[in-house]
Amino acid sequence: MAPSHTMRCCKKGLNWIPVLFINLVIGWSYYAYIVELCVYTIPDNAERISYLVVFHIFFFMFTWSYWKTICSRPEGPSKAFCLPKAEKELYEKEERAEIQQEILKKVAMNLPVYTRTPGGAIRYCDHCQVVKPDRCHHCSTCERCVLKMDHHCPWVNNCVGFSNYKYFVLFLAYATLYSAVISATVIQYFIKFWTKRLPDNHAKFHILFLFIVAVMFCISTLSLFIYHLWLVGKNRTTIEAFRAPVFSSGPDKNGFYLDFSQNFTEVFGDQKTRWVFPIFSSLGDGHSFVTRLVHIDPEQANAVLQQNGKSSVEGATNPSALDNNTQHTADSSKEKTDGGQTVSVTMESEP
Which residues are in the Palmitoyltransferase DHHC domain (predicted)? Predict the structure, then answer.
């Protein structure tokens, strides 16, 4: 037990090496830009002040979004997705997989889950002992299930998921802008040092490498930023881009696609003043998501949601989540009754 615990602690410590490396690069870039460029190299005071103001704006937004991504603990499934005590005992005692599936199906009837395993089974995590909500996956590095998991990022030593995906996208955006600002303002002095129009001094090394490193980071973060903007527009996670989610009607990579506007606001929220800041504004609760494959009668859904203290639904494609007590099924045009309220769930065919 002790060696295993020691190995896990060592592994967790090693996982912070990429984060330490990034922070060392950020710290050096700050020193090189402020001291070596602005203090020792730029002769004009007006130019120096303007560079310092612009640089610090993007530096602040970059570091803010970066550390928000690192420090935001990935959210896991709520207790509603745990098996009730009786069903849990039956599940653990049962050795036949088909009977275990029947137990899971019974529990899942009262949960807003529409996705299945490639074999059509209920998605269940034996490690966390929960029925997996849609888009939820188990991270072997974090050793937990993560809501709307996108991927585990070694550069932030954290899982990127529902609770911090907006921060991660902003981190990529501001990292690109931060690198672009450095590249654009340093290039003229890079050329002057390179062509020997400025005398060799202690600043030369820093200026030359600052420009090269900034360009390399700008290209790499820009490519990642464009890719994740594409994912946001398609309402997919990185996992779903490589492996399409499986519904009762089969795999569908566009199962959660609504339209670009709704896809964007699902991640960034409906308050435009919050879009550029790394503060949480994503819609929904991370446990259930609107899917174009499931049509919910808005009036009937409103009654159930209001009964359970949820906000009302404005249109058939606008609910952020279904209540955990709402019964549903994969069969076409079936109706279930929950506490005297009826919710119509219709599975549409793929276009």
Answer: 123-242
Q: Give CA separation, 314 vs 6, 125, 287, 318, in Å.
A: 52, 33, 19, 6
Residue 79: which residues within 8 A CB-CB, separation 6 or more? none
Length of the chain: 351
CB neighbours (10 Å) of residue 35? 14
Closest CA to 310 of 322, 298, 300: 322
Residue 227 in any domain: the answer is: no
DSSP string, 238-290: HHHHHS--EETTEE-TTTT---HHHHHHHHH-S-GGGTTSSS----S-SS---
Gyration radius of the chain over CA positions: 25
| Active-site residue identified among 145, 153, 159, 218 | 153
Query: 3-class DSSP state for residue 174?
Result: helix
For the cut 70, the answer to whether the pLDDT of residue 310 exceeds it is: no
Mean pLDDT within 258-284: 95
In a shared domain, residues 199 and 332 = no
Please state, in angstroms and rounded to a whole number, the distance separating the CA atoms of residues 253 and 351: 12
Statement: residue 237 has pLDDT above 90: yes
Q: How many CB atoms lie within 10 A of CB 55?
A: 20
Task: Determine contact, residues 264/166, Cβ cutoff 8 Å.
Answer: no
Same domain, 67 and 89: no
Per-residue CA distances from 23 to 10, 20, 156, 168 (Å) = 20, 5, 10, 16
Active-site residue flag, 153: yes
Based on the fold, state whether residues 90 and 22 are members of the same structural domain: no
Share of the chain above pLDDT 70, in %: 83
> Which residue segment(s) compose the domain that 58 sits in?
2-74+172-220
Residue with the larger pLDDT of the pair 63 and 201: 63
Of 222, 244, 219, 124, nearest in space to 169 by CA: 222
Query: Based on the domain organization, do 120 and 259 belong to the same domain?
Result: no
